[in-house]
Amino acid sequence: MIISISGIRGILLNRRNIPIMSMPIESMLLAVNVNFLVFSVSSDDMMGQSFASLVPTVAAAESAIGLAIFVITFRVRGTIAVEFINSIQG
Q1: Three-state secondary structure readout of the chain
Q2: What stretches pass through the bilayer (predicted)?
Q3: Which one in 6, 46, 57, 59 has a CA-CA gap of 20 to 30 Å to 24?
Q4: Burial letters 27-66, b for 16+ CB under 10 A, else e
């Protein structure tokens, strides 16, 4: 719960830098992963552990797609500042 709240707070406080905005999202995925593991152990079921092994895969895919968006935005606009992202039409 504390990791999730700090992740939400990190997104709300860091609205100027996009790469730093993606780090709290990763910590929220970590919180979900910990919840899967705790509930898997408490219910004596392996399903939560199998889901916990899939979360890093989703996090890696999200990071790769986010990095590609950053690179394309930087090539088109010359900056990745959040203030200029709103002007993208497409």
Answers
A1: CHHHHHHHHHHHHCCCEHHHHHHHHHHHHHHHHHHHHHHHHHHCCCHHHHHHHHHHHHHHHHHHHHHHHHHHHHHHHCCCEHHHHCCCCC
A2: 20-39, 51-74
A3: 46
A4: ebbbbbbebbeeebeeeeeeebeebbeebeeebeeeeeeb
The region, left, alpha or beta by phi > 0 then psi within -120 to 50, assigned to residue 80 is alpha
The one-letter code for the residue type at 86 is N
User: Residue 3: exposed, middle, or buried by beta-carbon count in 10 A (0-12, 13-18, 19+)?
Assistant: middle
Reference 15, options 67, 80, 73; nearest CA is 80
Query: Residue 82 region, left (φ>0) first, then alpha (ψ -120 to 50), else beta?
Result: alpha
Task: For residue 16, count other CB atoms closer than 10 A to its CB.
Answer: 10
